């Protein structure tokens, strides 16, 4: 704990992601604030180059405001902060509105993408020290934090989020950059796109309606819900980015309710039961086989989760591979789709080196499945044990936040913070390279 004015104050922990930013206090099990990673901007009506208002947070972003553009704070290819001013607005909102504390009174631990650029992290350090007046700061790679959340220093971390899946080998608490593989082909966003397209096709080309695009009128003669009439309307000046954002939120909810992964890879053809889903405009759609087939891309043999796991492990030193195969962490919101961990295991065993035996089941806390594999990857030809550990749902969803929360509350960590005076003396580049490699 750092001490300010005689009081012990806990650190703030912020885990960044392209879908949501998770923020809270060190020592807590879950983030206190989960905010969408977007910002709404409205330009000045006289000077179109000047932003007159910013909107952050679920409620503010959901309100239909003419002229409001909705943009992601993070770059869709790299996941890095795209616009540091927007990120500053998000930080202000988190501190003022959601955590209710002052930035200058708490150390800040932030997560970062394992492939982040030096220039991006230097900009961030300058922002937090110079503009937000954070007293001390630390940046930690997301897969390393996921390891800490699971009590590990060495593991292979498969993080499947909204915009990308990133697979990283972590050894002795360090993320191995050369082993890191990132793809945007497998992520929550592409499943959302597939589902939105499917619904559109089933509705004869008509997109899902966002809440601001219609009202429901009840017939006075027939008061049952089926007699409700949908009246579509158009609000002048709403932007395409706002419409898309609003629709994608609905699609995201549908995905959570509908999508399932086939556990053994046998996506049945004829007899998958149809499930009816009521859209917010009251219309039902039925979906059967597609509930499973949409998820098949997660297990694509060229770029799916299991393939990336093997590829990442193969980029590591031969002596480390066996240990990585026996310490696999599957994290990120996209892995919460029912059936994903079991299927992942199934595919991994198929692809991993020779004769793997599996002991079920999955999905229990850090409980492992023991496989025996005849290894040809290391220097041994004998049977060795492979374990894969899959954390519980909540732990999978907030793994990096939880790891950050644990790390920042460890007594032994307190000397690791970059202080403002160190930042002033050494400059961003040097102190980050030294303290947050
Ligand atoms: N229960 C669930 N079932 C299916 N998908 C879910 C579930 N919960 C969250 N998701 C999806 O997981 C994704 C968000 O995951 P996560 O919070 O790990 O992403 P992120 O860290 O913000 O993004 P990234 O790591 O790609 O930058 C979204 O696509 C969301 O719809
Ligand atoms: Mg993430």
Describe the protein.
The chain is α+β, with helices and mostly antiparallel strands and 437 residues long. The protein has three domains: 177 residues, 2-Layer Sandwich (Nucleotidyltransferase, domain 5); 127 residues, Nucleotidyltransferase, domain 5 (2-Layer Sandwich), CATH 3.30.420.40; 109 residues, Alpha-Beta Complex (Actin, Chain A, domain 4). β12 and β13 form a beta hairpin. It is flat, with a radius of gyration of 24 Å. It binds adenosine-5'-triphosphate (ATP) and magnesium ion. Adenosine-5'-triphosphate binds next to α6.
List keywords for this structure.
alpha+beta, Nucleotidyltransferase, domain 5, Actin, Chain A, domain 4, 6-stranded mixed beta sheet, 14 helices, 32% helix, disordered N terminus, binds magnesium ion
The small molecules bound here are: adenosine-5'-triphosphate, magnesium ion
CATH classification class of the largest domain: Alpha Beta
| Total domain units | 3
Strands ordered across the widest β-sheet: 5-4-3-9-10-21
Summarize the biggest pleated sheet.
Answer: 6 strands, mixed
Q: What is the typical, i.e. mean, pLDDT?
A: 87
Helix content: 25-40%
Task: Calculate the terminal CA-CA distance, rounded to whole Å.
Answer: 22 Å
- Overall geometry comes to flat
Poorly predicted runs: 1-7, 355-391
CATH superfamily of the largest domain: ATPase, nucleotide binding domain
Structural class category: alpha+beta
Number of helices: 14
Total beta strands: 21
CATH topology of the largest domain: Nucleotidyltransferase, domain 5
């Amino acid at each position: 704990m750092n001490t300010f004015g005689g009081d012990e104050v806990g650190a703030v922990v912020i885990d960044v992601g392209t879908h949501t930013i998770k923020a809270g206090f060190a020592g807590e099990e879950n983030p206190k604030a989960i905010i969408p990673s977007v910002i709404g901007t409205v330009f000045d009506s006289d000077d179109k180059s000047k932003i007159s208002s910013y909107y952050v947070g679920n409620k503010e972003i959901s309100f239909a405001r003419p002229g409001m553009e909705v943009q992601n704070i993070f770059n869709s290819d790299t996941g890095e902060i795209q616009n540091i001013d927007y990120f500053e607005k998000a930080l202000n909102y988190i501190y003022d509105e959601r955590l209710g504390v002052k930035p200058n009174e708490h150390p800040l631990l932030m997560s970062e993408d394992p492939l982040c650029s030096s220039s991006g992290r230097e900009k961030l350090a300058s922002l937090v020290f110079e503009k937000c007046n954070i007293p001390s700061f630390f940046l930690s790679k997301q897969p390393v934090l996921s390891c800490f959340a699971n009590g590990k220093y060495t593991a292979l971390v498969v993080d499947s989020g909204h915009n990308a899946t990133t697979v990283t080998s972590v050894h002795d608490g360090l993320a191995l950059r050369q082993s890191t593989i990132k793809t945007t082909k497998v992520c929550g966003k592409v499943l959302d796109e597939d589902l939105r397209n499917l619904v559109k096709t089933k509705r004869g080309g008509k997109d899902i309606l966002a809440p601001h695009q219609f009202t429901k009128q009840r017939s006075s003669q027939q008061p049952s819900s089926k007699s409700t009439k949908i009246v579509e309307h158009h609000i002048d000046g709403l932007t395409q980015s706002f419409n898309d954002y609003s629709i994608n939120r609905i699609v995201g909810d549908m995905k959570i309710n509908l999508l399932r992964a086939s556990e053994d890879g046998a996506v049945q053809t004829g007899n998958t039961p149809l499930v009816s889903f009521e859209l917010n405009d009251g219309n039902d759609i039925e979906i059967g086989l597609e509930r499973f087939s949409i998820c098949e891309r997660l297990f694509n043999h060229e770029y799916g989760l299991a393939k990336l796991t093997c590829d990442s492990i193969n980029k590591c030193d031969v002596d480390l591979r066996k240990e990585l195969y026996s310490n696999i962490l599957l994290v990120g919101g996209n892995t919460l789709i029912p059936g994903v961990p079991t299927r992942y295991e199934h595919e991994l065993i198929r692809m991993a080196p020779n004769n793997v035996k599996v002991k079920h089941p999955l999905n229990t806390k850090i409980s492992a499945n023991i496989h025996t594999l005849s290894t040809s990857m290391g220097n041994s030809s004998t049977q060795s044990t492979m374990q894969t550990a899959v954390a519980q749902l909540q732990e999978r969803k907030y793994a990096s936040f939880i790891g950050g929360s644990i790390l920042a509350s460890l007594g032994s960590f307190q000397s690791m913070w970059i202080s403002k005076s160190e930042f002033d003396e050494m400059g961003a580049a040097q102190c980050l390279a030294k303290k947050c490699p």
